[in-house]
UniProtKB/TrEMBL annotation, chain A:
Protein name: Spermidine/putrescine import ATP-binding protein PotA
The reaction(s) this protein catalyses: ATP + H2O + polyamine-[polyamine-binding protein]Side 1 = ADP + phosphate + polyamineSide 2 + [polyamine-binding protein]Side 1
Family to which this protein belongs: Belongs to the ABC transporter superfamily. Spermidine/putrescine importer (TC 3.A.1.11.1) family.
Domain ABC transporter as annotated: residue spans: 14-242
GO molecular function: ABC-type putrescine transporter activity; ATP binding; ATP hydrolysis activity
Subunit structure comment from the entry: The complex is composed of two ATP-binding proteins (PotA), two transmembrane proteins (PotB and PotC) and a solute-binding protein (PotD).
Glycoprotein is among the record's keywords: no
SMART domains according to UniProt: AAA
Lineage top rank: taxon: Bacteria
Organism: Streptomyces chattanoogensis
UniProtKB/TrEMBL annotation, chain B:
Protein name stated in the entry: ABC transporter permease
Main location: membrane
CDD domains: TM_PBP2 (cd06261)
Topology versus the membrane: Multi-pass membrane protein
Any one biological process term the GO annotation gives: transmembrane transport
Family: Belongs to the binding-protein-dependent transport system permease family. CysTW subfamily.
Pfam entry (one): BPD_transp_1
Gene Ontology CC terms, in alphabetical order: plasma membrane
Entry's localization field: Cell membrane
Superkingdom, natural source: Bacteria
Domain ABC transmembrane type-1: 87-301
PANTHER family hit by this protein: INNER MEMBRANE ABC TRANSPORTER PERMEASE PROTEIN YDCU-RELATED, INNER MEMBRANE ABC TRANSPORTER PERMEASE PROTEIN YDCU-RELATED-RELATED
Length: 387, 311
């Protein structure tokens, strides 16, 4: 299969308008507008029960939306059954047909559309996923990673406008998952089909997707490029669910010009006004957020030599764990609770042991501001739960 | 240069082998001990009666003078020559009843497995409920249901359906009892649960996501059934048809109670040879012929349906 053939059959866009799903009194998905551009790798990220799979199933036609419409490449498909939609799904646990061999599993979609000569296409597709020699095996004779590739091949061979992936890597072990992430990304670039990927693994979403929509409680919390979401979370849920954030409760002391001056406990902090998503006038409460890897530690004795203009918080090391590339510290900051700091292991300071008095400092530009009315712990432990 | 040393081997190592060698022999015998009850069961309840019947089938003599083993294999040929119509009829009735059970049982099992939802267990109990009464009583009840003045015959007559069935030769005149229709209906009714249970078990095991996957891959509901659901339920179909056909082919109660002398099945012949004519060798020979015939048919059937690796 040459690359040109593939890129010509590029994907279509998905447009969801006011789509929602309720089961009895339970609302799985609140009315939702979402546009997935053609040819993009789009991830729906969230903990289990956040409505991401339901959203995917409504695009596939496996679930009827309670309200709203689904459009594929500008065509309203809301009323069409799955077998009439130009989308294909890679199911969680693959759902390969156990009574058919790999070849027939992959050929299934072509045969149903009345295509007689499937041999060439099936062989090319099996080559693409590097399973040519396995063609006559049954699915249960394959390893998890191989089954996963069969599931991808079985869906891709139909050149759908959109490929839907429902936690496709959930059943694989960590190492294989990393490998398949790159593999899927390679395939997507090669075939140019729109991928909509559902996952609870934030690392997976960030590695693979061009655009990530973070879902929580049946709503999209924030949508954007992975780096953008990570650097500028708009809600505490996104800040905690994507990686780890230190969220510090603070009060705006002065709101003038490009910088906000905050007071947290007895410490003054600075925050770029442009990075504060909450309305912050003098006296308002905000949450100041900083990623742990953006912070640095200094022993109290070295306070004088800290870079100018850095935000500083005094504290005591409560716990230190050596991870290899970094050391993760938990700092007890008086009046502010616990703060996580990840220090790269470049020059380790022997004095930084549990019990030591330290100063946490960081460049104020790395601070982001969030509305303090939110639950400060939202999304904090969901990642582990879902995994 | 490494300064670490491998830990020294434990000093007691030399003393160990003796007790170590003893345990494996005892362990090796455990599976055989566990097999023993099953083997005894088979010997007492299967092998011994079989051998006894085999010897009976080649005996000659009479009840008064006693039977002796005379290696009289001619009994088999005589029995087959005299009773082949009943053999053919048994296979025919059992085959039709099995086909009817499959036609009735498959949709039922499908509904229970995929559509019944929380009513699943209730419906399953309803399927098994007839087993709470005796086979004989249930068949006698059918005698009343199908009786000449009964509601079924009345309705069929009103719709002139009995004229059609009589033209087809499966009923006679304006009655249902004492006709092939009655016997086949009785067999179908009595063995239906044996069809539904294995079908349900194999359908219930099918991952509903396979149906979704088929739909996702452009298969219409009918195609999904033909290409995915039905092939995956083959173990249930094979088990169900065997569990229905085998006992139905040897059944005599339905033919006895719902049929007339013209609907006698091989089971009736064996029963009367044993209990009325008291010709034990013929009865035993007939039993063996039936067993061999069923065994041969089942073997061919399993081969044909190609589900050896699925069952």
């Amino acid at each position: 299969m040459t690359k040109n053939d593939q890129t010509q059959s590029s994907g279509g866009d998905v447009r969801l308008t006011g789509i929602s799903k309720t089961y009895g009194s339970f609302t799985a998905v609140h009315p939702l507008d979402l546009t997935v551009p053609a040819g993009s790798f789009f991830a729906l990220l969230g903990a289990s029960g956040c409505g991401k799979t339901t959203t995917l199933r409504m695009i596939a036609g496996l679930e009827d939306p309670t309200t709203g419409t689904v459009e594929l490449s500008g065509q309203d498909v809301t009323a069409l059954p799955p077998y009439k939609r130009q989308v294909n799904t890679v199911f969680q646990n693959y759902a390969l047909f156990p009574h058919l061999d790999i070849y027939e599993n992959v050929a299934f979609g072509l045969r149903r559309r009345g295509i007689k000569s499937v041999k060439k296409q099936v062989e090319e597709m099996l080559d693409l996923v590097q399973l040519g020699p396995m063609a006559r095996r049954k699915p249960q004779q394959l390893s998890g990673g191989q089954q996963q590739r069969v599931a991808v091949a079985r869906a891709l061979i139909n050149h759908p406008q959109v490929l839907l992936l429902d936690e496709p890597l959930g059943a694989l072990d960590l190492k294989l998952r990393r490998q398949m992430q790159l593999e899927l990304k390679r395939i997507q670039t090669e075939v140019g089909i729109t991928f909509v990927h559902v996952t609870h693994d934030q690392e997976e979403a960030m590695t693979m997707a061009d655009t990530v929509a973070v879902m929580n409680g049946g709503r999209v919390e924030q949508l954007g490029a992975p780096a953008d979401l990570y650097e500028n979370p708009a809600t505490t849920f996104v800040a905690n669910f994507l990686g780890t954030s230190n969220l510090i409760e603070a009060e705006v002391v002065e709101a003038a010009g490009e910088e906000l001056l905050l007071r947290a406990a007895d410490t003054k902090l600075r925050l770029p006004a442009a990075r504060c998503s909450a309305t912050a006038g003098s006296g308002d409460k905000v949450l100041a957020g900083i990623r742990p890897e953006k912070m640095a530690l200094a022993h109290t004795d070295d306070t004088g030599s800290l870079p100018d203009g850095h935000n500083q918080l005094p504290g005591r090391i409560k716990d230190a764990s050596f991870i290899g590339v970094s050391t993760q510290y938990v700092i007890e900051a008086p009046g502010l609770g616990e703060i996580s700091v990840y220090e790269q292991n470049i020059a380790r300071d022997g004095r930084l042991v549990p019990g030591a008095e330290v100063v946490v400092h960081w460049n104020p530009a790395h601070t982001f501001g969030l509305d303090a009315a939110q639950d400060i712990a939202a999304g904090a432990d969901l990642d582990e739960e879902a995994a | 240069m490494s300064t670490t040393e491998a830990p020294a081997p434990p000093e007691t190592a030399d003393a160990e082998p003796l007790p170590l060698r003893k345990t494996p022999t005892r362990k090796r015998l455990i599976p055989y001990w566990l097999l023993l009850p099953g083997m005894l069961w088979l010997i007492v309840f299967f092998a011994a009666p079989l051998v006894y019947q085999a010897s009976t089938s080649i005996q000659t003599g009479s009840l008064e003078e006693g039977f002796k083993v005379t290696w009289h294999f001619a009994t088999y040929w005589d029995a087959l020559g005299e009773y082949w119509p009943q053999f053919v009829r048994s296979v025919g009735y059992a085959g039709i009843a099995t086909a009817l059970c499959l036609l009735l049982g498959y949709p039922l099992a499908y509904l229970i497995a995929f559509k019944a939802g929380r009513w699943r267990n209730v419906v399953m109990i309803l399927v098994i409920a007839p087993f709470f009464t005796s086979f004989l009583i249930r068949t006698l009840a059918w005698k009343t249901i199908l009786a000449d003045g009964g509601p079924v015959v009345g309705a069929l007559n009103a719709l002139h359906l009995l004229d059609v069935t009589s033209a087809l030769g499966i009923t006679e005149g304006h009655r249902v009892l004492a006709t092939p229709l009655a016997v086949v209906c009785g067999l179908t009714y009595n063995f239906l649960p044996f069809m539904v249970l294995p079908l349900y078990t194999s359908l219930e095991r099918i991952d509903p996501r396979l149906h979704e996957a088929a739909g996702d891959l452009y298969a219409r509901p009918a195609t999904t059934f033909r290409k995915v659901t039905f092939p995956l339920s083959m173990p249930g179909v094979v088990a169900g048809t065997l569990l229905t056909f085998i006992p139905a082919a040897g059944d005599y109660i339905n033919a006895e109670l719902l049929g007339s002398t013209d609907q006698k099945m091989i089971g009736n012949v064996i029963q009367s040879q044993f209990l009325r004519v008291l010709d034990y060798p013929t009865a035993a020979a007939l039993s063996f012929i039936l067993m061999a015939a069923i065994l041969a048919m089942v073997t061919i059937y399993i081969r044909k349906s190609g589900t050896e690796d699925l069952v």
